[in-house]
């Protein structure tokens, strides 16, 4: 049978273009292999196999007998290789032919159905041919069969039938007078050894390897296709249906017959007097098949260049497009309206993906629908470029100060952590764990990758829930902007949903109690380009609801949201698109599919309004959890990308403070904090000052701005820079918050972060609360639950309650009783900051708690002298071991209030100590900053921060103390602090500073590598360096780092370093010897410990 005959049995439409080419390639390569191996099998025993040691008259006999033995060894089952090749390729081709013949009638009928009825059956039902699974099942079966056969042939070839390598050398023993090889010692003397050589062996091995490779490639390709098909089938159930599977996976090539039919169709339209209804159906058929459009476009273009036909064609198509339709009865329900005939066009609009209307050979006329979509998208792109939420909070007057920092949506938008359903909150007694509960990592949650993972064919009615400021409106704005930019929901092969028109409805703009129709709602939507919808646009929407996207934003802000479920059940409002009704009823009918059934609807709300929409059958509910810590860093980087230095400072300040970092999980808070800190950085940098680290200042500013921007009565008010200059809220608002402050205090006191609905009555809609899932009281009742939007917010308002309601005596006693309890520590830090503006609350309430007890130590380790035999040195330590945690808490409080800090420093000077011992206290970088600000005293010569985990950023803060002119710090212990090469760089810069008096530096048990060692070596090589002793034991330094240090000591004739500890690193014996050799010269006075 010829290849051409064989191809007649293979139906191309049953495989798809690529797959069909692969099958043809399989046939061709099979034929090639068959020819090659058949030739080998024929010529190998006669021409390519030679044996020595035989007389000339017996040479053919010896060759034949030895070749038989060769075959017995390398082809145990006597199956010729060409026979194996025939089986290998022919069986798989046979499977393809059987599959092709089985599905051929199905694919032919499907193709015929698509040609005759491009839109398929009616929208509400499809025929069995289209919805059956025969094609999918048969396709998967033939793939699986071919996969199994491929694996079987690979195993047969490599493990059973043939060796992996055919040897070219063969030792053949033949006994005299017999064809049997010697079997015993008795006939050994009658055996003859013949050395044989097979010239074809190497080539044979290579071709067998080629067969193996081809089989392997095909097996892997089939396996990948099977996995892809099943994954897609799991994601899209309708993918397995015959029509969908053929259209999206097989995609058979168009036949010439179809093209002829289309050409005839255009001729009929332009030359025959068909009725309006028939023309509409014909034109609709053309307009909805992209491949037909392209071919007809080309045809029309060709005809348009013929003068005799041009005028007639243009006139007839234009007439068809403008004949009135009798659509009133169908229009009432928004369904089953014939497609607008204006879709017969020469080409398609790039932005709208909707065809143009041809009006001449060179001129293209845009339809009203195209103009509407184009104008809508342009308006969205223009208006969402720089949303009001992203405008600068502190703009300077024109021509003064720094230019305002307005952000664009594309520049700053950062993906949010979004989880299906409502998130659960399992608070514990561990404060640090509770902070992490708010800022959940996106990696640990089922986070949709983008809008199309939220909205798709299966889930078209979506509810997005989130607390105030979490990013609901901004994320929907981003979705709309991406749609307008053709990035999502656009007609591409891999899209899950396609939308031609979109409407953005803000509920709060419809709080006036007026009735409106669906058409009026769309014209009053936020980005509607006109005050009314053109008739063609309106008809397109009614006929194609599946291509409409509706976004309803801020259900909780809608005054009549409680009537949504009730209005849907009232009989006076019919399911008609032209009937006027309240927005609550209109929204209910849209979300239940009674109007525009099939439209995509996204609704956003705070959790407080969920009870109003209990009867709405949402396909899917998502909750926005905000930013993870990784996304906060990404946001801060984007925020300050134009000023990297200021941005790095802001990022360090946020990431080094767990309280601020955790609060930034709320995007609105993150924007406020970034804006405030950026403003501070710019101001203090111009004055040559450091960034203030008062947590209270940041929170007072952030709370005020957040409250004003997210409280309902202020939502539409425009705020100026002057409104945000002070930290105080309007007096009437402060009064409203008194109940909230008391609740916050009681919650901290009782260890409660969750409050019942009765406790927050009257405050449920506050921007400072978050509604949690209801708690089931019993089998038939539940209770609403609330928490503050963040734990630090609760702690801040608890502090405000203390400073606003307690007298001096009450506050003094309360602080004294609870200062050592962890749950009050941040509260008291806020109390200290708030006391700045409370004249009735003296600073001594907190400064009097400063511990004054000291202890003395005597140890040679504390000696900073450079003598070889160090004497023990006596130091006076503060605080004592039992008061360290109290001292750290108070230092944080003092840093919040400049008057307190001054008073604390005066008291510390009176204590008379020189050794600060803050070990095992787990300090953050912000804590280190507070420590440096408070203990910056001349009397302090020793600082011990062992096992505080301060990290590189904490080290950066400590380095500020080394650079301070007043500082006399000569001994610093930073053992076990997770210091890296970055920290070593900061220390090197500080050591080189003219003000640095440091003599002993202990960096034992950190993560410093060769890079860090090089930084320290550069510092040692500087004449400003006064280090005498350097401990680098238990780090990650190798021979390279040791050499850098040794060379620096050796090269600096004025080097002050006398002792260097490098033991327990990654230094080899060769590295040790090299370092010793460098320091062995007579000038070096440094002793090296390895």
From TrEMBL:
<protein>
    <recommendedName>
        <fullName>NACHT domain-containing protein</fullName>
    </recommendedName>
</protein>
<keyword id="KW-1133">Transmembrane helix</keyword>
<feature type="transmembrane region" description="Helical">
    <location>
        <begin position="20"/>
        <end position="38"/>
    </location>
</feature>
<dbReference type="GO" id="GO:0005524">
    <property type="term" value="F:ATP binding"/>
</dbReference>
<keyword id="KW-0472">Membrane</keyword>
<keyword id="KW-0812">Transmembrane</keyword>
<keyword id="KW-0677">Repeat</keyword>
<dbReference type="Pfam" id="PF13516">
    <property type="entry name" value="LRR_6"/>
</dbReference>
<feature type="compositionally biased region" description="Basic and acidic residues">
    <location>
        <begin position="344"/>
        <end position="353"/>
    </location>
</feature>
<keyword id="KW-0547">Nucleotide-binding</keyword>
<feature type="region of interest" description="Disordered">
    <location>
        <begin position="344"/>
        <end position="363"/>
    </location>
</feature>
<feature type="domain" description="NACHT">
    <location>
        <begin position="460"/>
        <end position="609"/>
    </location>
</feature>
<dbReference type="Pfam" id="PF05729">
    <property type="entry name" value="NACHT"/>
</dbReference>
<feature type="transmembrane region" description="Helical">
    <location>
        <begin position="79"/>
        <end position="102"/>
    </location>
</feature>
<dbReference type="InterPro" id="IPR007111">
    <property type="entry name" value="NACHT_NTPase"/>
</dbReference>
<keyword id="KW-0433">Leucine-rich repeat</keyword>
<dbReference type="InterPro" id="IPR038359">
    <property type="entry name" value="Connexin_N_sf"/>
</dbReference>
<dbReference type="InterPro" id="IPR051261">
    <property type="entry name" value="NLR"/>
</dbReference>
<keyword id="KW-0067">ATP-binding</keyword>
<dbReference type="InterPro" id="IPR032675">
    <property type="entry name" value="LRR_dom_sf"/>
</dbReference>
<dbReference type="InterPro" id="IPR001611">
    <property type="entry name" value="Leu-rich_rpt"/>
</dbReference>
<feature type="transmembrane region" description="Helical">
    <location>
        <begin position="210"/>
        <end position="231"/>
    </location>
</feature>
<dbReference type="InterPro" id="IPR027417">
    <property type="entry name" value="P-loop_NTPase"/>
</dbReference>
């Amino acid at each position: 049978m010829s290849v051409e005959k064989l191809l007649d049995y293979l139906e191309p439409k049953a495989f798809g273009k690529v797959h069909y080419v692969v099958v043809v390639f399989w046939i061709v390569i099979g034929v090639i292999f068959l020819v090659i191996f058949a030739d080998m099998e024929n010529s190998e025993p006669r021409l390519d196999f030679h044996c020595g040691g035989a007389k000339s008259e017996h040479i053919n006999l010896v060759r034949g007998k030895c070749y038989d033995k060769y075959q017995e060894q390398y082809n145990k089952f006597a199956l010729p290789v060409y026979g194996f090749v025939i089986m290998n390729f022919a069986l798989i081709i046979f499977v393809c032919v059987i599959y092709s013949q089985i599905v051929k009638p199905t694919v032919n009928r499907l193709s015929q159905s698509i040609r005759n009825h491009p839109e398929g059956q009616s929208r509400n039902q499809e025929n069995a041919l289209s919805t059956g699974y025969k094609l999918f099942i048969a396709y998967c079966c033939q793939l699986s069969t071919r996969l199994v056969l491929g694996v079987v042939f690979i195993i047969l070839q490599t493990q059973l039938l043939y060796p992996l390598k055919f040897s070219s050398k063969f030792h053949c023993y033949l006994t005299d007078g017999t064809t049997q090889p010697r079997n015993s010692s008795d006939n050994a003397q009658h055996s003859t050894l013949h050395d044989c050589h097979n010239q074809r062996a190497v080539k044979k091995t290579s071709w067998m390897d080629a067969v193996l490779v081809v089989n392997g490639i095909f097996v892997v390709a089939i396996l990948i296709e099977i996995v892809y098909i099943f994954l897609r089938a799991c994601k899209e159930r309708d993918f397995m249906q015959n029509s969908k599977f053929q259209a999206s996976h097989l995609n058979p090539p168009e036949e010439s017959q179809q093209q002829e039919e289309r050409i005839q169709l255009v001729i009929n339209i332009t030359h025959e007097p068909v009725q309006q209804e028939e023309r509409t159906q014909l034109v609709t058929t053309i307009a909805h098949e992209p491949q037909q459009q392209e071919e007809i476009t080309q045809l029309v273009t060709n005809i348009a260049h013929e003068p005799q036909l041009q005028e007639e064609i243009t006139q007839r198509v234009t007439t068809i497009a403008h004949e009135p339709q009798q659509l009133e009865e169908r229009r009432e329900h928004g369904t089953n309206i014939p497609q607008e005939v204006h879709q017969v066009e020469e080409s398609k609009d790039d932005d709208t993906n909707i065809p143009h209307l041809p009006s001449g050979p060179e001129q293209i006329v845009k339809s009203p629908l195209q103009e509407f979509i184009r104008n809508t998208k342009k308006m969205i792109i223009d208006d969402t470029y720089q949303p009001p939420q992203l405008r600068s909070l502190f703009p300077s007057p024109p021509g003064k100060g720094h230019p305002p920092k307005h952000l664009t949506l594309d520049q700053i938008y950062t993906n949010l952590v979004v989880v299906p359903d409502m998130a659960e909150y399992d608070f514990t007694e561990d404060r640090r764990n509770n902070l992490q509960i708010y800022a959940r990592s996106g990696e640990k949650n089922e986070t949709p990758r983008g809008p199309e993972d939220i909205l798709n064919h299966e889930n078209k009615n979506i509810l997005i829930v989130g607390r105030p400021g979490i990013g609901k409106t901004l994320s929907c704005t981003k979705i709309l902007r991406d749609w307008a930019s053709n990035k999502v929901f656009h007609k591409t092969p891999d899209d899950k949903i396609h939308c031609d028109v979109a409407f953005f409805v803000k509920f709060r703009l419809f709080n006036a109690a007026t009735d409106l129709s669906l058409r009026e709602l769309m014209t009053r939507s936020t980005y509607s380009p006109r005050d009314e919808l053109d008739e063609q646009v309106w008809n397109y929407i009614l006929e194609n609801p599946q291509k409409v996207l509706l976004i309803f934003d801020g259900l909780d802000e809608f005054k009549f949201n409680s009537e949504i479920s009730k209005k849907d059940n009232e009989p006076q409002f019919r399911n008609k698109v032209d009937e006027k009704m309240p927005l609550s009823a209109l929204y209910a009918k849209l979300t239940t599919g009674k109007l525009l059934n099939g439209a995509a609807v996204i609704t956003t709300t705070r959790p407080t309004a969920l009870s109003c929409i209990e009867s709405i059958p949402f396909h899917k509910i998502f909750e926005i959890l905000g930013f993870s810590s990784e996304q906060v860093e990404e946001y801060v980087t984007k925020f300050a990308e134009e000023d990297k230095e200021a941005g790095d400072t802001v990022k360090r300040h946020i990431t080094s403070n767990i309280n601020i970092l955790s609060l930034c999980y709320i995007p609105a808070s993150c924007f406020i904090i970034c804006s405030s800190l950026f403003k501070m950085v710019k101001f203090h940098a111009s004055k040559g000052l450091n960034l203030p680290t008062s947590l209270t200042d940041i929170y007072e500013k952030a709370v005020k701005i957040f409250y004003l921007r997210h409280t309902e009565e202020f939502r539409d008010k425009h705020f100026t820079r002057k409104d945000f200059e002070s930290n105080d809220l309007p007096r009437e608002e402060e009064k409203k918050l008194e109940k909230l402050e008391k609740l916050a205090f009681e919650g901290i006191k009782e260890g409660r972060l969750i409050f019942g609905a009765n406790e927050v009555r009257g405050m449920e809609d506050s921007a400072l609360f978050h509604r949690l899932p209801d708690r089931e009281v019993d089998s038939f009742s539940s209770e609403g639950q609330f928490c503050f939007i963040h734990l630090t917010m609760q702690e801040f308002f608890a502090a405000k309650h203390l400073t606003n309601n307690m007298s001096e005596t009450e506050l003094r006693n309360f602080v004294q009783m609870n200062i050592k309890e962890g749950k009050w520590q941040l509260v008291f830090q806020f109390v200290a900051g708030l006391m700045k503006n409370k004249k009735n609350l003296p600073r001594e309430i907190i400064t009097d708690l400063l511990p004054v007890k000291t202890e003395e130590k005597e140890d040679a380790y504390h000696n900073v002298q450079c003598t070889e035999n160090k004497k023990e040195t006596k130091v006076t330590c503060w605080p004592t071991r039992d008061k360290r945690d109290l001292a750290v808490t108070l230092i944080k409080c003092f840093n919040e209030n400049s008057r307190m800090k001054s008073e604390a420093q005066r008291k510390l000077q009176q204590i008379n100590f020189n050794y600060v011992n803050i070990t095992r206290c787990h300090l953050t970088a912000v804590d280190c900053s507070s420590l440096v600000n408070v203990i910056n005293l001349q009397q302090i010569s020793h600082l011990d921060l062992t096992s505080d985990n301060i990290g590189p950023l904490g080290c950066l803060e400590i380095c500020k103390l080394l650079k301070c002119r007043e500082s006399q710090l000569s001994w610093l212990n930073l053992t076990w602090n997770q210091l890296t090469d970055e920290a070593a760089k900061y220390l090197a810069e500080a050591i080189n500073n003219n003000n640095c008096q440091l003599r002993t530096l202990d960096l034992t048990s950190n993560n410093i590598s060769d890079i860090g060692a090089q930084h320290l070596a550069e510092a040692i090589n500087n004449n400003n360096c006064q280090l005498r002793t350097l401990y680098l034991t238990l780090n990650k330094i190798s021979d390279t780092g040791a050499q850098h240090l040794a060379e620096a000591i050796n090269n600096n004739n004025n080097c002050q370093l006398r002792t260097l500890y490098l033991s327990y690193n990654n230094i080899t014996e060769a590295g040790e010897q090299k370092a010793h050799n460098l320091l062995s010269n007579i000038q070096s006075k440094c002793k090296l410990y390895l």
